[in-house]
Amino acid sequence: MLHQISREILADPAFSSGSLADRLTAEQRQSQWLGAPGATEAELDAMEERLHITLPPSYRAFLQASNGFGPLNRFIWRLKPCAEVDWLVKTEAELVEMWEVDVETVPSVPDEEYFIYGKKQNSVQVRGEYFRGLLLVSDWGDAGFLALNPDVHHQGEWEAWHFANWIPGAVRYRSFAELVQAHLAAYQAIKNGARQ
């Protein structure tokens, strides 16, 4: 999937000569690859020890394949390498505090509404009590970023969240892999729509 994203981004006029051309490096253009060498077991172990976690399988597999990657699409410009991944509350404390203002007064979203994914999901249906525990895995892109939620598991995976200024709340996925697949599909739809 990462090789497919690389091929499509590198062939996209917006990235080759348009408004997003500065998002690609000369090395990426030459190698035709948007990733980095994969993380070593020592790097992954150090990350897990530093954060006091065990990484979910699809995110760990991503880091093993490419220790940092980007751009992912026209809105998320860089997925962080192991050494830069950290808790959202450590990097964006004011943002987390702002989101948490209503946590104690607003009832939590019930399970039957929260655990809806895909097109029927309501992005407003996020649980504020999870904000402080989110793991930030991307830089800020075009007014948005990606995070993992270790408080919600699906078959061993952690829930993945996409925040953006144009999304009320967050779009949630069952795993990091599902998030990347959805972002690839959305990017292809936008790119193909721009060609018509």
From TrEMBL:
Pfam families registered for this protein in UniProt: SMI1_KNR4
Sorted alphabetically, which InterPro entries does this protein's record hold? Knr4/Smi1-like_dom, Knr4/Smi1-like_sf
What the entry lists under SMART domains is as follows:
SMI1_KNR4
Which residue ranges does the record assign to the Knr4/Smi1-like domain? 38-182
Look up the domain of life of the source. Bacteria
- Write down what this protein is called: SMI1/KNR4 family protein
Q: What is the lineage of its organism?
A: Bacteria, Pseudomonadati, Bacteroidota, Cytophagia, Cytophagales
